[in-house]
Amino acid sequence: MTRSITMLLAGGAAAAALALTGCSAGMNSQTADQVAAVPGFSWTVPGPNGGNVALRDAMVAYAGPTGYAQGATAPLQLRLFNDTEQPITLDKFESNDAAGVKLASAADLKPSPSPAAQSPSPSVTTSPKAAGSPSPKVSASPEPDASPSPATAAPAKLTIPVGGYLELTPASGQFLALTGLKQPVVNGEGVHLKLTFSNGVVIETPPGTVVPIAPPATMPSRLPPSPPPTRAGEEGTGH
What we know:
The protein is mainly beta and 239 residues long. It is built from one helix and twelve strands, in the order H-E-E-E-E-E-E-E-E-E-E-E-E. The strands form three sheets. Strands 1, 2, 3, 5, 7 and 8 form a six-stranded antiparallel sheet that branches. Strands 6-4-10-11 form a four-stranded antiparallel sheet, with no helix packed on it. It has a two-stranded antiparallel ribbon with strand order 9-12. The radius of gyration is 35 Å and the shape is elongated. 18% of the residues are buried.
């Protein structure tokens, strides 16, 4: 009797250990279905002399439920990290989905004011000339030379210090913007992006991957559920 109880307890312990092993090594573990909490595109590329250059949380700014129309300008929001031994600069930015990519500022987000209606110039009334008096000759004053237009200032270098980062978002005051989208970009889609740095590092969205449109800052409120329809004969019934 004692031997039977001992064998029963040993068998139960072995079964419990086997069950625990199966749970820890199973395909449906707690981490199997976890995904990144950040919805943007992120990529890391090793530097030529060690370290990494990283792009984090790159997204196209949310523009509303309809997305962006063809030919529109789409602001980007992203962050760049320099984990190498030398400061680097972002030298070139381009996209296959736009006519160009420019370094923009907060002023580019403001709508252009509509030109004011031109007011008609007041008519000049000429006083009648005295009979026989010669009209005075108007001496033409020499026109001043056109002042040369100021030279366009070169864009500031986008330098990332050693161990530092660069924030390019509309909220930071400077950001990258895709100009002249070649086709509409709706929510759920995205754009191609290629960044080239002074140390030769290139960060580009791989085939089949895009910089997505950001989700809205606040989710739209849902309508309250409507009550189920009342069937005929159910009103006024009791139990």
